[in-house]
Amino acid sequence: MYRYDQYDQSMVDARVDEFRDQVARRLANEITEDQFKPLRLMNGLYLQLHAYMLRVAVPYGTLSGTQMRMLGHIARKYDRGYGHFTTRQNIQYNWIKLSEAPDLLAELATVEMHAIQTSGNCIRNISSDQFAGAAADEVADPRPYAELLRQWSSFHPEFSFLPRKFKIAVIATDVDRAAIQLHDIGLQLVRKDGELGFKVWVGGGMGRTPMIGHVIREFIPARQYLSYCEAVLRVYNRYGRRDNIYKARIKILVHELGAAEFTRQVEAEWAILEPLALDAPQAEYDRIVAQFADPEFDVAAPDSVDRSDPDFALWLDQNVHAHKQPGYAIATISLKPVGGIPGDATADQMDLIADLAARFAHDEIRVTHSQNLVLAHVRKADLYALWTALEGAGLATPNLDLVTDIIACPGLDYCALANARSIPVAQKIAERFADLDRQHDIGELKIKISGCINACGHHHAGHIGILGVDKKGEEAYQLSLGGSGAEDASLAKILGPGFSEAGVVDAVEKVIEAYRVVRSGPGERFLDTYRRVGAEPFKAAVYAPAGATS
Amino acid sequence: MIRLLTGNVLETGDVVWWTGSNWSLALRDAVDVGPDGDALLARTVAAERINDPALVDAEPTRDGPRPRTMRERVRGAGPTVRADLNRPNSIEATA
Hints:
The complex is a heterodimer of chains A (550) and B (95). By secondary structure, chain A is of the alpha+beta class. Helices cover 36% and strands 18% of the residues of chain A. In chain A, helix 15 packs across helix 16 (526-533). Chain A is globular. The model of chain A has no long low-confidence stretch (mean pLDDT 97). Chain B has helices at residues 37-47, 70-77, and strands spanning 2-9, 15-18, 23-24, 50-61, 64-67. Chain B has one domain (2-85). At the A-B interface, helix 13 of A face helix 2 of B.
């Protein structure tokens, strides 16, 4: 894992001191809220419905056990004993006091963490594949490149006041676990003629105008990807709309210019930048790559697993993935117990996961954009002991990528922007489909729920997407089908009129039952069935009987 | 229909309601600000101690004011998904 050098640490420490002074001046009424608000947002501190919410960055979703333990400590000392892992691989705390925020950030800084650029019109936390460095099929670990992007984008003077927020994701496999085509910039590490480089997507995104990104370059050498990203950002910063917040994201610029013209402008900009040698020197790449070296694997680790405990075998089949190293596996910890709040973890659970990471996973934890956690390097021989410990803490639900593994934003239970609650809908759907046999019969099915058009719950990318809307002060829900955030990215389409909270749960069940009837066989995923047969069988199932409210 | 004055305390972010003489954490203490609402709101904005102050519509009930929108009911009662964190003596948002 990357460790801060003196520059990283001094930047973060200086920011804590600066924010402490800003908070003191605000509390003393020396500055107004209008003056203070942009300053606190630059430090990830929002005011939500019930209290301040702090969003802490987890760069490319990678944490040490020490950092996870600190997150638990923060939850216990400054919040109400829990935190919420987000679709940007970050963690949010819902009950923070402004007066305590500087002390909190000072404690975070002691473990090389912060909340800088988790809000505002800047480059946000760089996200990545939660299996990075462990996946059997990756070209190379993408995280060193994500880390260099983090360093480049932190306090970048030219890109601190962009037209709108900017999100970058980096992966290194053909299987996309980071939704790169739905990012402002998506980067896939590839190898061409022996040389490492990136395939570059630009202009994807969700929100009120969802769009799939365009490939603007099939290959940029890895040693030049930073200056190429700089060229993309420069074109966006120059021509992105600042007059209309709803049209300010880069996806709108790419759409309005056309991908070909946007690409031409980026290439022209890069032709100016490239000779300036702005990219990091090879020694800096090497320094960062060295910090992501594989842990010392046990080369004698046995490759077989005793599956005699049927509950363990279920978890093994659903939540454990192949590792590049024989004798090792990747274990996903579900934060989606039936009836629970997707993505929430208590301070005690965080402590336990930190302990388990130290015992079984080389002290490393990953956060997934699907709001689960991953231990990426576990000896197969340790899986049963790991599962036993997780089971005892309610963390071993064997439901990864199944119907109860639902993404849900905080929604109207917490968020000041939300129009409707997301979490209760997720809970009711999970309870409806709690039976594991039924879940396995349904197979892979990704339900994603957002409480407003901003789409933090990724509903556009859900096989089944649910959007909460406001209908004269009351909650209503739109159902969409056919989205995907994976390598086969697509945008979900609205099925028809909306529903009440209870109605949308019934509608989801009708959609799923219709799928079971029309699928070609148990091996055909819901998404593939939808793509094959279209929306009609699902519309018929949902709207023919009573149930719709409008 | 009555009108309530609400906001969040600067130091803590806590949701508070205007009682006629002070701020309370309990929605049931809120009073109808009636025609004085706009003046009270302007005074609150100027004082810079309550963030996001706003006037919200509510219905009077035996258990206290019930805000018209789900958003304000959730603000008044706490998250509907964490009963352990609900504010004491509040009307459930979904009631």
